[in-house]
Amino acid sequence: MTVKTIIPEKLDSALINLAEQIKFSKPVNRYLVAQERFTQDTAAHKIMEDLSTFQKDIRQKQYNNQVTAQDVEKLRSLQTKAQENEVINSYGHSQQEAIGQLREINAEISNLLGIDFASLAKKSIC
Questions:
Q1: Per CATH, which fold does 9-123 belong to?
Q2: Residue 65 carries which DSSP code?
Q3: Cα Rg, the chain, nearest whole Å
Q4: CA 114 to chain centre
């Protein structure tokens, strides 16, 4: 069963305006630009894929108690590559800034409404 929520036109317009303002705020805009750069950078993608794959492999080895010194060294090397990659670094940093801003916005709206604003979105059924 689908429950549809009908939002009054004035509120709908205000929400669209809020979303646009958030989208064009400096932290969120920096994140969107960094996300696009990351999406387009094949080298950054390769580093993250290699790191992710190796992390899965090493978790399995940990589970079986088979991690070697070479495994640890390779993991450190892949992590260093990711940390030193400017595109990855910028993407991660901008993502954290955007999350921080969204938390501040949520707190402010929650304060004004007297309820946890973000929890409303989690409970909505479309």
A1: YheA-like fold (1.20.1500)
A2: T
A3: 21
A4: 27
**Residue 81, Cβ neighbours under 10 Å: how many?**
17
Per-residue pLDDT of 45-87, as tens digits, reads 999 999 999 999 999 999 999 999 999 999 999 999 999 999 9
- Which residue ranges make up each domain of the chain? 9-123
Nearest to 51 by CA among 22, 23, 10, 84: 84
94, 30 Cβ separation under 8 angstroms: yes
C-alpha to C-alpha distances, 107 to 6, 83, 119, nearest whole angstrom: 24, 31, 11
The owner of tokens 């064009």 is: 24
Q: Specify whether the CB–CB gap between 91 and 38 falls below 8 A.
A: yes
Tokens encoding 76:
């450190």
